């Protein structure tokens, strides 16, 4: 298949880009487009550029990033198209994003079908438009509207694009028909080329304020702020000088580690759901979901399921609890209405027709999938699964939302362990994007496939995890929590730790996270694990002391912080310093850099063990888990990508240094040692496991 199909219809040349799945503007596409254009210039009076299949052009080909550019590069191709002697029309459908929109902007006229979306999402990949987008777009829309599009990266609708003059016309039909019609109309009207580069520069605005705001919002990310400066040149320099400046700024971003992190995140997010063992395995059909337990998680899971069009039956312990759960779910749906995610009519319809609550397990006898979200206690869970075994229909998927417990043991309390799986949602379950799909020893492949299909319907990112205490995410969390608690014992304050780690880019510090989750959760886990604790483990007790004082975090108004304003609390520091005195520890100072290095070394070390144990399939599965469930900064790519970029030898060296004070906690993961010895990276393991 040629990358661009050429057809001459009367005197109009149709250049149809064919590069599935999203018609990315690869080298082959760029070269073929220019060949097609030259041919058109010899034999046609107008040229129409359009995309084959589901979309126009979704952008530059991301697979080419980081490789030497191959001529014709996209900005040159765009300039050549714009300089054509023929009127060039872009006929859009699907998404015209990034280089795709830039290509359309180099055409002289743009027509689109109504549900087209256009945008410049480059900043979400750590770069900025690099094929004239920062120069052409503001000439059409004005600087402010262009900055909104470029700095947020959010696509806009065809209607909005028409209002902003990005589109000239919206037409029903397919891109071929609407492109041909529009081209004919342009020829009939005697119109010629209309290059944006010849349009006047936009009026200047207060770019310094935009730059400062983009830096502040980026929390360490530089792409949007850099793009502001590029748009500024559109106001201040002649077009081709502005293009040159755009290229320089673009190249700087292309060389940045942030770009590497974000591109890794882009591909990793898509790679997690591709499991070789599920190829060709059909998922089970799910229409009705049963939820057992309507507390924090059960209500969130019910809400997420309702919002995605499932029927939901929620079972609680008694009628009162069932009513309470109903009102929690209704409030969450109200929130969705307020945020414009749900219409009031659909809300009413969902609550009346799609949602039932009950206090009797017989209510779930028609459910295709049942998700248990009762208390985190093995005895309670075993009882629930034994009861489900009696009531659930044959073939129903039986899932547990447990955070830590052994899914194999839960499965063994039924006569159908093949149907049992872990579906670990994150709180709030109707908001958080991560779903860990915990595959137990007996789980049938079509049950796993159903878990992934469910995630897709719920618009969540699903990662396959194996069975162990805490699966991927909570197991790693438990380990880096130990590292930060030890630092606090040795002299850091929880507030310094939180600040150092939010400065690193974490969405929240670990102590603020504990307060949000509830300190009682960690307390219960520590009690559960106490009998099997290794005697060499350092055991800080300040967290237990806070719980004994009834300080469970946000829900009680006090935890590490005082709420509602999350103020620091001298009483907490006093409790910690008393404990240091009891343990005979002389507190020492920690720099923010040391806090960050210890935190990351602990995270990466445990993550390496998680991969080695087969709990996560590949390092990238860990990355996606931490990005979508634990507030790890996307622009750092995830902990494993971060470690690769630091150099695994540096991370291992840090671990050896920290082991000088505590060689039990800081035992290097064998996988990490092996990779360092072999001079390999985590990403090498990703590639080896790639499909
Ligand atoms: N290049 C290469 N592959 C791409 C791609 C791209 N731009 N976009 C998507 N894919 C692959 C993706 O990896 C997946 O592959 C398959 O297509 C389907 O994608 C000079 C520098 C278009 C909204 O940022 O936002 O232009 O996993 O599963 O949900 O200024 O893909 O099947 O092997 O996501 O229907 C700017 C990125 C680039 C758009 C479709 N463009 N793509 O979503 O399918 S930078 C973007 C998306 C640039 C210029 C610059 C989405 C989508 P596989 P999918 P989807
Ligand atoms: P919760 O205490 O808020 O809710 C539990 C609910 O289960 C209560 O409403 C209780 O009445 C109900 N329940 C108890 N036994 C029942 C039974 N036999 N039949 C029906 N209902 C019963 O707890 P939660 O925070 O929602 O946690 C539920 C599960 O989700 C736990 O396994 C927990 O580990 C897991 N989880 C929690 C979080 C979180 O952040 N809270 C995150 C992920 C997973």
Please tell me about this protein's structure.
The strands form four sheets. Strands 12-11-10-13-14-15-16-17 form an eight-stranded mixed sheet, sandwiched between helices. Strands 1-2-3-4-6-9 form a six-stranded mixed sheet, sandwiched between helices. Strands 5-7-8 form a three-stranded mixed sheet. 48% of the residues are buried. Strand 13, helix 15 (378-391) and strand 14 (397-400) form a beta-alpha-beta unit. It has three domains: 4-255, 2-enoyl-CoA Hydratase, Chain A, domain 1 (Alpha-Beta Complex); 286-465, NAD(P)-binding Rossmann-like Domain (Rossmann fold), CATH 3.40.50; 473-690, N-(1-d-carboxylethyl)-l-norvaline Dehydrogenase, domain 2. The longest helix has 21 residues, at 592-612. It is built from 29 helices and 19 strands. The site of nicotinamide-adenine-dinucleotide has 24 residues, from helix 12 and helix 15. It comes from Parasulfitobacter algicola. It catalyses: a (3S)-3-hydroxyacyl-CoA + NAD(+) = a 3-oxoacyl-CoA + NADH + H(+).
The structural domain count equals 3
Strand content: 5-15%
* Main sheet specs: 8 strands, mixed
The secondary-structure class comes to alpha/beta
Name the CATH architecture of the largest domain: Alpha-Beta Complex
The CATH superfamily of the largest domain is identified as 2-enoyl-CoA Hydratase, Chain A, domain 1
Work out the radius of gyration. 28 Å
């Amino acid at each position: 298949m040629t990358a661009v199909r050429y057809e001459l219809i009367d005197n109009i040349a149709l250049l149809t880009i064919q590069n599935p799945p999203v018609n990315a503007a690869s080298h082959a596409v760029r070269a073929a487009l220019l060949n097609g254009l030259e041919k058109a210039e010899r034999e046609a009076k107008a040229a129409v550029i359009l995309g084959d299949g589901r979309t126009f052009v979704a952008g530059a080909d991301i697979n080419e990033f980081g490789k030497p550019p191959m001529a014709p590069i996209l900005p040159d191709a765009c300039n050549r198209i714009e300089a054509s002697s023929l009127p060039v029309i872009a006929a859009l459908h699907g998404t015209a994003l990034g280089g795709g929109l830039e290509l359309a902007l180099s055409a002289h006229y743009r027509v689109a079908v109504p549900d087209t979306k256009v945008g410049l999402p480059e900043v979400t990949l750590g770069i900025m438009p690099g094929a004239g987008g920062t120069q052409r777009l503001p000439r059409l829309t004005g600087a402010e509207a262009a900055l909104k599009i470029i700095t947020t990266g959010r696509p806009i609708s065809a209607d909005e694009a028409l209002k902003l003059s990005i589109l000239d016309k919206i037409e029903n039909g397919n891109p071929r028909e609407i492109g041909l019609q529009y081209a004919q109309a342009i020829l009939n009207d005697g119109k010629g080329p209309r290059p944006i580069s010849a349009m006047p520069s936009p009026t200047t605005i207060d770019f310094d304020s935009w730059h400062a705001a983009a830096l502040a919002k980026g929390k360490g990310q530089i792409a949007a702020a850099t793009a502001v400066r590029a748009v500024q040149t559109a106001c201040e320099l002649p077009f081709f000088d502005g293009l040159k400046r755009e290229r320089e700024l673009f190249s700087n971003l292309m060389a940045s580690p942030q770009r590497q992190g974000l591109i890794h995140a882009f591909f990793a997010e898509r790679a997690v759901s591709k499991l070789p063992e599920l190829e060709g395995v059909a998922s089970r059909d799910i229409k009705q979901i049963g939820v057992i337990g309507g507390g924090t998680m059960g209500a969130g899971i019910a809400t997420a399921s309702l919002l995605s069009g499932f029927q939901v039956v929620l079972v609680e312990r008694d009628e009162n609890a069932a009513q309470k759960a109903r009102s929690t779910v209704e409030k969450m749906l109200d929130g969705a209405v307020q945020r414009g995610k749900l219409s009031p009519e659909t809300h009413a319809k969902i609550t009346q027709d799609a949602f039932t609550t009950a206090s009797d397990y017989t209510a779930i006898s028609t459910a295709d999938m049942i998700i248990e979200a009762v208390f985190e206690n093995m005895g309670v869970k075993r009882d629930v699964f034994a009861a489900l075994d009696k009531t659930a229909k044959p073939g129903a998927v039986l899932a547990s939302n447990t955070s830590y417990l052994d899914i194999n043991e839960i499965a063994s309390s039924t006569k159908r362990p093949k149907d049992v799986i872990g579906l670990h949602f994150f709180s709030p379950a109707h908001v958080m994007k991560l779903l860990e799909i915990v595959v137990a020893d007996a789980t049938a492949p079509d049950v796993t496939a159903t878990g992934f299909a469910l995630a897709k319907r719920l618009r969540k990112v699903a990662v396959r995890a194996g069975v162990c205490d805490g699966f991927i995410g909570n197991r790693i969390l438990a380990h880096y929590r130990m590292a930060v608690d030890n630092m606090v014992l040795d002299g850091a304050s929880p507030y310094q730790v939180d600040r150092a780690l939010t400065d690193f880019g974490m969405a929240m510090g670990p102590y603020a996270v504990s307060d949000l989750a509830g300190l009682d959760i960690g307390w219960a886990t520590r009690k559960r694990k106490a009998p099997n604790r290794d005697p060499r483990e350092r055991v800080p007790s300040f967290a237990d002391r806070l719980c004994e004082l009834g300080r469970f975090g946000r829900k009680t108004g006090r935890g590490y912080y005082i709420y509602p304003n999350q103020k620091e609390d001298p009483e907490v520091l006093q409790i910690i310093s008393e404990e240091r005195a009891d343990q005979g520890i002389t507190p020492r100072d920690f720099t923010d850099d040391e806090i960050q290095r210890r935190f990351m070394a602990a995270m990466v070390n445990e993550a390496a063990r998680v991969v080695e144990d087969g709990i996560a399939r590949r390092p990238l599965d860990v990355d996606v888990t931490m990005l979508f469930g634990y507030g790890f900064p996307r622009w750092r790519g995830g902990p494993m990508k971060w470690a690769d970029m630091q150099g695994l030898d540096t991370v291992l060296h840090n671990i050896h240094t920290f082991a000088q004070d505590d060689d039990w906690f800081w035992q290097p993961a064998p996988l990490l040692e092996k990779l360092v010895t072999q001079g390999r990276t985590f990403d090498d393991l990703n590639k080896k496991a790639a499909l």
